[in-house]
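User: Here's a chain of 575 residues. Predict its fold as tokens.
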Amino acid sequence: MPAARVASGAAAEPSADTASPAGVDQPTRKFLARATLVTAVLSIAGALLGLGRDQALAHLFGAGTETDAFLVAWTVPEVAATLLIEDGMAFVLVPAFSLAVARRARGTGTGADPVRALVASTLPRLALAFVAVAALLMAGAPYLVAALAPGLPDPGLAVDCTRLTATCVLSFGLAGYCSAALRAHRRFLAPAAIYVAYNTGIITAMFVLGGRWGVRSAAVGVALGGCLMVAAQAPSLARQLFGRRRSAPEAEAPAAQGPSPVDGPEAPQALDATDGPLPSVKHAVELALIAPVLMFALCRQSQVLIERFLASTLPSGAISHLNYAQKVAQIPMTLSLMLCTVTFPVLAQALAEGDTERARTRVERDVAVASCMVLLGAAAVFACAPQIIQLLFQRGAFTAQDTAATATVMRVYSVGLLGHTLVGALVRTYFSAGRPTWYPLAAMAAGIVATSWIGAGTVEAWGVRGIAAANAIGITVTAALLLSGMGERRSVPIRTRRVLHELSKPVRAAVCAAVAGAFCASRVDSPELALAAGGLTVTVVYVLLLRVLGVKSVAPAFRSALRSVTRRLPHVRFR
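Assistant: Prediction complete.
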């Protein structure tokens, strides 16, 4: 999408038949559509199971002292997932494995396999580090709980749960390593399935062991789910590392032979003999590149630590209300960022080739489409928060008072969803150029300072609403700093004023749609009918206002993005 409009399509794209500069034939649209469909279905299934996990936690244990204790321990897998699976290691290991895969493809069949060499040089040391950190967390669990939630009424229960969840440092680290290696091989099915396996393990443990062990069963489920994440990917990774590989002549022209009987359907690839020498694989995992990424991911996750620290001094259930509200409110953000996840390799390729214009168009299009999508979800969350929480959680130990408190917090959280989405979309541009940068960390630190000060100043008067408001303001500060810092020296030089002007249109539409939807939902007594009426009103008002304001639709931009990915992602596989 050009900067001026969300739906107008972008500057002219190259022909679908044109080979990429790297000399790699592009996958067929039919193949990419199949791979994307499988990935999207599994990602959504994992998100729905995560929602089911939270529903089971609310149903079995409510929103009180027990769940507060577990959610303090839940901080460990939340931070570990961010650092080891989703953001931190992925930004470093995916490029490193991609480079090793490219070296393997260009080899003549002699010498050490670059991929196996990379695994041999990195996996043992990383695994040892994961074990050491997990052991340290188990030993220091009492001190960690005291630091995270000093006002917790039952710290002993939180310590027990923390020692169980600390095992995820090892399992998540191995799962993230497998995911990075498989994605570099263009294998997406197993990495997309990890959260299905993870949440299945937690839900199963809660229902099987909950009657005997209480909320500790959820912590056991975290440990079990982490092991299932590794098991879901290990067979596929083993095939890539040790399975029969095609010879060099076969690799040069696989299109004439059809899909491999072992690997399943794959896109044809052809290596250009005129390519220059590839950079060193070792350079891709230097500490100078790793440190800013990991520090940013850790700093971003510290927002949750601040919220739980402040909420631990409030009456029992405050941490639980924040958790349930945040998990539901962030669903629109997660879905809106799926496009950015898919187009990340396209952006990285454009920057590697020095094509600044293509990279700028890609970023502006992604920001506009993701923003339009998340604002629609934010408007729906704000309008129908009481009905959503009532239908999802109000049963068993979760009372009507819990519903009212959680819905209020969720409405406040919805105000910050655009900021969360912009941070997720923009930070990729800073880390995709292959050079170290500390600016994203500085921007995130400024947002954390704002969250801390505002939260500390409002928690006594506003309770959990003040904490949620601090979160929304802090992440918005970070998004504004990242947007203003986009430039040739640090990232991609986008047209910031144009982008902001275009963002203002869906923001205005979302505000009006949220107010109209909340009014309609409040006029209906049945929660099901109220949710339907509010959601329909939000959608109709939002779409109509987008058209009136000149933002016709995000669909043409999404189709253009899909065509772009189809042309530029080499040898995609989804198994």
